[in-house]
Fold:
Amino acid sequence: MNDSLLSSWVEWTPALLDGLWTSLQLTGGSLAIGIPGGLLLALLMSGRSRVVKAVAIVLVEIGRGMPALVVLQLVYFGLPSAGLTFGPFLAATAALALTTAAYTSEILRAGLQAVPAGEVEAAAALGMSHRDSLRYVVIPQGVRVAIPALLGFSIQIFQATSLTFTIAVPELLGQAYSIGAATFRYLDVLVLAGLVYLAVVLPAGSITRLLERRMGRHL
Amino acid sequence: MTLTTGTSVVSLRGIRKEFGDHVAVRDVSLEVPAGEVVAIIGPSGSGKSTLLRCINLLERPEAGRIEVLGQAVEPQGGVSAAELAKLRRGVGMVFQSFNLFPHLTVLRNISLPQERVLGRSRKEADARSLQLLERVGLADKGASYPSRCSGGQQQRVAIARALALDPQVMLFDEPTSALDPELGLEVLAVMRELAADGMTMVVVTHEIQFAADVADRVVVMADGAIIEQGPPSVVLTAPTVERTKKFLRAVMDR
Ligand SMILES: Nc1ncnc2c1ncn2[C@@H]1O[C@H](COP(=O)(O)OP(=O)(O)OP(=O)(O)O)[C@@H](O)[C@H]1O
Ligand SMILES: [Mg+2]
Structure:
């Protein structure tokens, strides 16, 4: 360890924090679109129509089966040939949102299924519509059950944003690579980038575990 | 809606319900006139719950005709969502396992269905809920979550929740079976009052004493069929069917 490393780190930090901000925005965007998408898929999968169910299952299997990196490249390089062009940030958000929807649909489906059948029957016996029963009884409780797992998944998506440097999104890893390319000190800058990832992921992990313990109330 | 005494609130004709190749209810007919309290007793697995659940179509019978408050449905021909909603609007149900919504306070449990099913405003609904909570002796529990209530309290909330929709008939499926005896008593007390107020009730129960005191008619089921029925003074003390005698002896011995 020497002064030159420390002073370089200090020098690189603003650029990396810029990158972190982009990573967090990507994470937020993917979750904001992907989790409602996952809920929709979960509801479709547990719905009554066989065709709808089959379509939802196929979408989920594709989304989970294809590596996030492949989805990303397909959206960014593939869609323009179909006449749809996105900037890197939008393409990255769309691709990660797809992956999020596919994975969280399973998490949310398990949450919805954890709601006791007796409560659904009670809602039906009270004359509540299927829709109201979902909206007021099943979804609020199912989502609550799923929150710890969703947080765990959010941490993974945050890590997966690093894949988007391959389509030139200036997120944390992308910024680190730019610095590496300019200074040829890849190792030094990657260590710092790794520390920044850890500084986000470790506290987020403990918050997740804390919530997990506190979630049991009223359920 | 008013009903003159003598009109059937619930009329079941030839109800048959199968689960796979097992026949749970075989061709049962039952008329429940307004204001009557019917107790259904019988051994475990005799189809009591299944029959009760056919009344509000929680189970769809394979055959038969159900008429509730003058609205007839033949479930095997398909029932529209509107028909189902209309039928269930007049019928309240209380389950063995309470089935309160645990993520909502006691007050919300009672108010939410009023808002969604009857279109009452939140204010109207809450006023009615508080009135009913008082009636079941839980005026101070509105802000509590169900998990903070004893089983007996939860069951009384469940009764209030059903009553809040102003049903014309109440169905009870072993409402005290999941409760310690003392807690069961507070639930039975509420049910007694309800009966005394003239509510039409169909009660599946193992509480022979309750049936003897409160029911106008006792219906005995075995193997999916009604084997005997009549006033409690006859059915419970001088049954004529051998199977009934055997069942009552078994219950008394417990
Ligand atoms: N959903 C179901 N699927 C398959 N079989 C069922 C189902 N519900 C009930 N049965 C069967 O139907 C028969 C009648 O059941 P039901 O629950 O109506 O009896 P019960 O008289 O209420 O008994 P208990 O006193 O134990 O509550 C039983 O043999 C039961 O196993
Ligand atoms: Mg039963």
